[in-house]
Amino acid sequence: MKWSSKSYTITVTCRFAVPVGFPCLALVNTEQLGSIASVTILSDFFEVSMSKEFTTQRHRVADALNQSEARYRAIVEDQPDLICRWKPNRILTFVNPAFCRYFGRMPDELIGLDQLELYSPASRGMQAEILAALVTRLRPESPLSTGRQAVVDADGVPRWRDWNDRGLFDASGQLIEIQSVGRDVTEEMKMQQALRISEARLAEAQRIAHVGSWEHDLITGSFHCTDEMHRIFAFPPETNITANAVLRGVHPADLANVVAAITQEAKGQLEFRIVLPDGAVRHLQMQHETDFDDAGNAALMAGVVQDITDRKTMELVLDHERRLLRTLIDTVPDTLFVKDSDGRFVMVNQALLDLMQVNTQEEILGRTDWDIHPGVMADQYRQDEIRVVETGDKVIAHEEAIIDSRTGRNLWYSTTKVPWRDADGEIIGIVGVGHDITQQKRIQDALEHRERLLRAVAEALSLLLMTQRQQGSIDAALAILGQAIGVDRIYIFENHDDPITGEHLTSQRLEWCAPGVTPEIDNPLLQNMPYAAFSDRWYPILSQNGTLKGPVSDFPESERALLEPQGIRSLLIIPIQVDGAFWGIMGFDDCHTERNWTASEESILAAAGASIANAYVHRRTEEALMQSRQELAAANRQLAELLTRAERLAEEAQAASLAKSEFLSVMSHEIRTPLNGVIGMTGMLLDTPMSAEQRHFAEIARFSGETLLTLINDILDFSKIEAHKLELEHLQFELRTALEDAVAILAVRAQDKELNLICLVDPGVPTYVIGDPGRLRQIVINLASNAVKFTDHGEVLVKARVEVEAPAQITLRIEVTDTGIGIPAAYQADLFTRFSQADSSTTRKYGGTGLGLAISKQLAELMGGQIGVHSEVGKGSAFWFTVVLEKATEIGDEPPTLDLTGFAPSSSMTLPPTASCA
Predict the structure, then answer these.
(1) Which of these, 183, 232, 407, 564, has the minimum number of CB atoms within 10 Å of its CB?
(2) Which 3 state secondary structure label does DSSP give 216?
(3) pLDDT at 85
(4) What is the spatial distance between Cα 710 and Cα 712, in angstroms, rounded to a whole number?
(5) DSSP H or E run through 576
């Protein structure tokens, strides 16, 4: 049996044969088991009948008493507890060794001493009252008293002691002595006080941390929990909580997990939700542990729960903010990264992962630039980062080259790097942002390249226009272009057809080569070379104004067989159009790199190639004219010598006239060719940034060039007509679109004069016809242009209708009426003769050569029609013409139309650049 720390008193009655009236006091101490339980056995006065054996009995009793006293002393002297006896007047009569050691005095110093001497003077009064009360309280019927005292001993040290006091009484019940057994419990009291303080602190800590604890005795079924547990589950105070009551508060969706955790796991942690009586849901975190008995059965389960609702809410908010921030970081197209002070990546965004061609951050985190980029780049990056870490300076918008993992090409990034600081402000790394400026750099480089190319083209064209020695100027122009575009070879081929087979041939005429590049001008394979001999696609593509470009390795094998022996790695082939016909090609070879040609390069070089080709044609024409002049001079000398031969002289004069017409046709063309270059370059100049004054001058130059080009076109057309060299096209076209295009050209001029420009097409006019759409538009433009020119207010109306219809063709009548100045009847008969106008004053006021109507008359007649006019001074004019067109099968839907009826442009409106015929 395990004894508790309480004291028990057992009274045993013993009968001895002793003389009557002899007092017998027997003290017996039980064996010590843990804490001592002192048992006092008191033998009261016994009455023993006298006999003749009295002496024998007396000796026996005396021996028993001596033995009992010896055993008592043997027991109390070995006890660690304080044992003493004292009289009701507080005088000590007995002390054991433990008592002496405790108070630091010898037995002879303590026996006969007043107990009050053992306490400090300040506490003796209170101690005297306590002892007096104890003496008063002890009675035979209640001889035992226990208690705990807080005292201050004579040495001034406060102590706590537990006392078991037992009163010893005589036969009359008079208290004669008190036996006290004591124990110093000062350390125990300190521990209990510390425990209470600790428990109070624990309770307060649990309250502050929202942590409650519980114990569940699985053997007895008892359940105990702290006050904070009450508050967490919202149980009323003083409520006796059971384990089932706690489980009933668990959220139904989490109950199974909680039960499984506490029944299947001896030790664990989990999070779950509870539902409070008011319906509020709280988040808890629980840690539990189960103790087992020696048989391995679960005996005690204990745990703590913490209300983590605020933390969970904060975690949700933080998680939302983190995900939002991460989404923002990964959505930003710029690269974002964070590195530690050693240059290792600790954070990257999706844009950087895409750039590095990796799927997860783990493939980048912990690595350095040396693991990713070439050493030279990594060294430069690291130098910048070391400067940021060591000085705290920022690197703002620093341009860096980066290798694109996807293509291996260099990319350009504008990178900003700033210090990354910890909570104490110490620099622990860098934060970087990289903005892809590759496109900007490429655009900038392209613009600079385009500007250089334009300057080179302008210089080359200027050289062609200003230099009299054409051969030298062409070679110089090719050299300027070659150096500007950075190619190795430029060449021009001229087309011609086989006179017998009609096969399309081409021959190299001009060439420029960079230093160290082998010329091909003398290559016999490049003379009279059939297109079809090496490719079946070059002529169809180039004749339709298409281009051929790119690396030679991408070309078909048959084409590579011709190009690769010339050392060509990349080329650009541009068609050259002369007088609207496919005259030849201009080629640019790159023998060092596989370059990709831009659309800007293509368009600029196409214009330059046309100008150079025209200059070459002009040079050949001049040579032909020089030869013609020489022949003419010889003929003139011959005529002078053979004046008598009049008939032959007339023939020679007629030949000279024809030569002059031919000369006029050629010269008009040669003048128009460089003029096209001037107009084109002026238009490109207007697309560049200029001051207002420069733009004004450039506009004047372009207007003058266009006016001169119109004049030259009229002269060239008239000369072709006179020389019977004008050939009409035979094409299927959409009639309404042709008329619409012609009218749209004059829309801006009509708007500037605030005129109504109207186009009406009769519903009976077929949609598709066969004829020459260009010449038809030319007549309409000539007539409508004159109507706009000579009309200051009102309207210009273009009407089209079918005058005569046959099964296979129609006679189309187009009439242009205006509300202009009108034409006097006396001048109307001469309007359609060349270089004629109604009045010489109109030339000065309105401008013009007088060829437009003459050319229109010739074109109308060539197209099987007529032309005429009805006019009245001050009321306007009505010019009309007819043409014969073939019918065609209609295809597609009717085109959308725009009814310009009633359109009245004002100074505040912008007329659309095109107009539709209704």
Answers:
(1) 407
(2) strand
(3) 93
(4) 5
(5) strand 570-578
- Read off the tokens for 329: 């970081």
Q: Look-up: residue for tokens 């024809």?
A: 658
Secondary structure class of 236 (helix, strand, coil):
coil
Residue 462, classified by CB atoms within 10 Å of its CB into exposed (0-12), middle (13-18) or buried (19+), is: middle
- Chain centre to alpha carbon of residue 73: 96
Give the separation between CA 788 and CA 751, rounded to whole angstroms: 10
d(CA 221, CA 207): 26
Q: Among 250, 252, 286, 284, which Cα is nearest to 267's?
A: 286
Tokens at residue 507, please? 């021959």
Q: Say which residues have a Cβ less than 8 Å from residue 519's Cβ, sequence separation at least 6.
A: 489, 511, 513
The pTM assigned to this predicted structure is: 0.34
3-state secondary structure labels for all residues of 370-411: HHCCCHHHHHHHHHHHHHHHHHCCCEEEEEEEEECCCCCCEE
Residue-wise pLDDT for 122-156, tens only, equals 889 999 999 999 999 999 999 999 988 888 888 88
DSSP state of 37: -
Report d(CA 548, CA 508) in Å as an integer: 17
Cα(778)–Cα(752) distance, integer angstroms: 22
Q: How many CA atoms lie within 13 A of 878 on its CB side?
A: 8
Contacts (Cβ under 8 Å, ≥6 apart) of 532: 503, 504, 539
Nearest 10 degrees: CA dihedral of 320, 323, 326, 331? -100
Question: ∠653-656-658 over CA atoms, to 5°?
Answer: 115
Counted residue by residue, the chain has a size of: 918
Q: Alpha-carbon Rg of the chain, whole angstroms? A: 63
Q: Confirm if 428 and 340 have CB atoms less than 8 A apart.
A: yes
* SS3 label, residue 655: helix
The confidence score (pLDDT) of residue 441 equals 75
Q: Which residues contact 383 (CB under 8 A, 6 or more apart)?
A: none
Q: Report the C-alpha gap between 86 and 92 in whole angstroms.
A: 4
Q: Would you state the pLDDT for residue 909?
A: 34
Distance between CA atoms of residues 859 and 514, nearest Å: 50
The stretches in the chain having pLDDT less than 50 are 1-52, 469, 840, 843-844, 892-916
Q: Residue 743: which H helix or E strand, with range?
A: helix 735-745
Are 542 and 575 spatial neighbours (Cβ–Cβ below 8 Å)?
yes
Please give the Cα distance from 135 to 131 (Å, whole number): 6
Residue 594 and residue 488 in contact, taking contact as beta carbons nearer than 8 Å: no
Closest of 918, 900, 855 to residue 881, by C-alpha: 855
Q: Kindly give the pairing relationship between strand 529-530 and strand 504-513.
A: antiparallel
- Is 735 strand, coil or helix? helix
877: closest CA among 824, 841, 799? 824
Q: Which residues of 627-638 are buried (b: 16+ CB within 10 A; e: fewer)?
A: ebeeebeebeee
Strand 756-761 and strand 795-805: pairing?
parallel
Alpha-carbon separation of residue 787 from 707, 766, 794, 879, 900 (angstroms): 17, 26, 11, 9, 17
Are 62 and 16 within 8 A, CB to CB? no
In this predicted model, what pLDDT tens digit does every residue of 397-430 receive, in sequence order? 777 777 765 566 777 878 888 999 888 888 989 8
